[in-house]
Amino acid sequence: MKDKKRKAAIRAEMKATGRRYAAIAREMATRAPARTFLLQDLLNECASFPPATVDWGFPQELAPAVFESQVLGGAVPFSTVLQLAGALAQEGRAARLTLEALHPLETAIVACGARRFDLVLSQDSWMRELCRTPACERTPVHEVIVHCDAHLAERPVRELIDMAREWGCWHSAGVNDPALLMGSPDADELVKAAVNQGAYEQVATALLGACFDDPDTLEDRLIWDEPTGIAIRYAMDRERLRLQQVANTEARRIRKKAEACTACGADLPEWAVLNIPPKFCSKECAPRIPGKAGADPQ
Ligand SMILES: [Zn+2]
Ligand SMILES: [Zn+2]
Fold first, then answer.
1. Which residues neighbour ligand 2 (ion) by CB within 5 Å?
2. pTM for the full model?
3. What residue ranges do the domains of the chain occupy?
4. Which of 5, 135, 221, 280 has the most crowded CB, counting CB atoms within 10 A?
């Protein structure tokens, strides 16, 4: 909808219903069907469209330089488009994007494949990558842990293991002191998500293996002098213990909240074993996890 027409429609609805402008604008934005476009289309507009004047309701000098984008259907800062292009540099100009939501002069949420971005329209170069779960407005735990803490717990175990591995490599790259690898809140989030599915052991093992070069499993043990090997083993054992505590606390928390077994309704024992999802009373009630020892192959 053209901007003038849109504003007129909002005002008409304000008169008819007595509701606030912002509330109606927000609702209209979510009513609009999702539109798709190429990054190239947005870049072409950014390169050729003149600056637009917008009534922001705050001093012009604080406002970003914007153009009226036909692709997005509203004013968008030049610099934010460039920042989006930077984030999608690997996908290239032919990257196909979907406009998930537009709150005019506030934010636009666009998706490219599984990745999602929140473009802040009222400020220069302000964009944040969002959790990959559709419609979620929270930020991911980490660049390689691509969901927010709430949605991470819903991801398949195979994915959690892959993320743990990737994060471990990322976290340990270029770090020479193993003590610096301990105690990351990112590791805690992965472990908590794993506990939710009874997959603590697999995820923690993948994480620790990627984080620390285990001196016992390295093919060429000779590259480690003894003190280095001891320091690594010490740090790894301490981190394993720490993660186990995080896992136990999370399992107890989930148990307390769930009160009864999700499958059979029986009371849940207060203690929790980490290889059974805490919302279930027993192995028999818990869903089978593909890729987990003892589960059916898929
Ligand atoms: Zn999320
Ligand atoms: Zn049960």
1. 261, 263-264, 266, 281, 285
2. 0.77
3. 1-28, 33-130, 150-258
4. 280
